[in-house]
Design brief:
- There is one protein chain.
- The protein is 23% helix and 29% strand.
């Protein structure tokens, strides 16, 4: 489980082997001279794919879903970070994985509950600024 605002979570599920994994990252890429870290999408996504690969997953067997990237604060920097986070995930996952339509953007944060043994993903959009939360959305990867 994870809770997201402008951060993004990538859920990967291998239907052949019946297991999966999820990450959560804050920013798409590090600044120059910044060390690699899983707080950056470019590193976090690669590490998630590599870890599943160590257990026998092949990139073509992975189903993906991207969640998060909300515009929690109504200013341009929040929107830019959210957009770049989503673009990072979609760009990396475009090569080889099957990507479900993303549960991204909007003005409300999201709580992800990913069942790594079945590929079931439940996304609950959180209350934000007086707006009623949306209903839970469920996906099968």
């Amino acid at each position: 489980m994870t809770v997201l605002g402008s951060c993004v979570s990538v859920c990967l599920y291998d239907r052949r082997l019946r297991y999966g994994g999820m990450n959560h990252y804050q920013l798409p890429e590090p600044l120059p001279l910044e060390p690699p870290s899983t707080r950056f999408g470019v590193t976090s996504i690669e590490q998630l794919i590599a870890t599943l690969g160590e257990f026998g997953s092949r990139i073509g067997d992975l189903k993906a879903h991207v969640v998060g990237g909300a515009f929690i604060e109504d200013h341009e920097q929040s929107r830019l970070v959210a957009d770049l986070n989503i673009e990072m995930a979609l760009r990396r996952l475009a090569s080889g994985t099957s990507v479900l339509p993303p549960g991204t953007r909007g003005k409300a944060g999201a709580q992800d509950l990913f069942y790594t043994d079945s590929g079931r993903l439940v996304v609950s959009f959180l209350h934000n600024g007086g707006e009623a939360p949306e209903e839970n959305v469920e996906f099968e990867l």
